[in-house]
């Protein structure tokens, strides 16, 4: 009787995660703020994945998403706490989150959403000095064996592809 070979080892490559891992591994916080960089660079919106610019806030796709379509809404001003936001900034933060939720519904058709703000590094803030609201689309059954067993997230669509589809929906072309 011939012995069966064991299945080959499968590798899941995610090289775009390395910059995030390197930043997260540093003992000190980064000195610059990508939200501030993006706020001041409107000509680089596609490169920076900025989807929308309002009067006081803007929306940007997360480069290190929990799931496809995960985006953030942030004020232009570098403020680290909600109480520092003006009433106009707070109102527009929520209005743009609703606008982004609507675009995500058209493009990705999620079954639900997680919205959240992490204030301070102990609360999970990756950029603790710049308030931002996460908008995370969710689907029934979107936790699977990869997440449970392998501690890996599988995101089936490239960021720029999602960006282009959302831009199309936001501009009314979809």
Summarize the structure.
The protein is 33% helix and 14% strand.
Question: What does this protein structure show overall?
Answer:
With 174 residues, the protein is an alpha+beta fold. The protein is 33% helix and 14% strand. Helix 4 (87-108) packs across helix 6 (159-170). The radius of gyration is 18 Å and the shape is globular. Strands 1-2-3-5-4 form a 5-stranded antiparallel sheet. The mean pLDDT is 83. The longest helix is centred in the middle third of the chain and has 22 residues, at 87-108. The chain has helices at 18-25, 34-39, 45-48, 87-108, 145-150, 159-170, and strands at residues 50-53, 57-61, 71-75, 112-116, 133-138. It has 6 helices and 5 strands.
Give the termini separation: 60 Å
The percent of residues in helical segments reads 25-40%
Beta-strand residue fraction? 5-15%
Structural class: alpha+beta
Q: What value does the Rg take, in angstroms?
A: 18 Å
What descriptors fit this protein?
33% helix, 14% strand, globular, 174 residues, alpha+beta, five-stranded antiparallel β-sheet
